[in-house]
Amino acid sequence: LNIMTTGLAAAASPTAPAHGLTSPPRTTRPAPQQKALYLNIPQPRHHQLRQRRRLVEASAADAAGDSNDVEVSVEKSGATVFKFIDPNDVELSDELKALAGEVIELLKGVSVSMVGDSDAINLRLGETLAPLLDYVPLSTGAIFEQLTGSSVETVLEQEGWGSVAAVEAVVCEQLGPTVRNVVSTLGGGGGVAARGDAWRHLYGHVCIWVEEVRDEGGVSSSEDRPQNEAYAQAEIQVKVASGQAAGEVVGEALPQILSAMKTLLTREDDSPGLDLAGKKLLYIKLGSRGDWPDIMPPEWKPEN
Questions:
Q1: pTM for the full model?
Q2: Residue 55's CATH number
């Protein structure tokens, strides 16, 4: 397993409603030049999506329940590998508990999003990481099915990725400003996280990309996959061998992800008086306008 953090927090870095739903390029820090992909939403479904926003908000609130408020923080160190942790039957080591506790303090409530081509890995990591942080695990796929009354597979087969991504975009738009959640996004290479324009709703979260690679040299088997350009905006990137079961990936990656989060969140940012968590909270407070990582003055308006 190979884990790394991007230079996002090092080079630049920027509360929100508790639960509602909603919609940057990695590398050096001049203003990001992301490729925006615009969705062609058929008019009838477009109207339906607007009417469903309240249902999305209700779904997130129900999932949150009465969970306590928590602050969060994270670190990077490719250190000790712990055994796989089942969130429903957990015997946590003292080391992992302590590391998760540090991350909780550093995150300050900032939500976390899992992105990448594997639905199973995104979901399993999200469900395992959330209880460690005392966060609420949310799945855009599960909320998708609540909103549409259909499975992702059915909508994909009948209407294609454009319609799937359009619904997931509504979910991410409402979830973007929420705090203390771990959001698992759809994989498959066609969901919202694979589309550059939707990332303005993910910039307010700490994003983790798990990429499966096939060759021994660690070169991605997905060089021809344009969605990787969007995924690469994640602050933490994890490379795992292709074909591993989701449980195996979580067992290897989880401790190192927590360590990477801690390192990332403790770095000083270029913004005076702000660490990465503080900058993300500021980004959300100003309306998730897409101006990441270089947050513009409050009066700034995004171009149409």
A1: 0.71
A2: 3.40.50.300
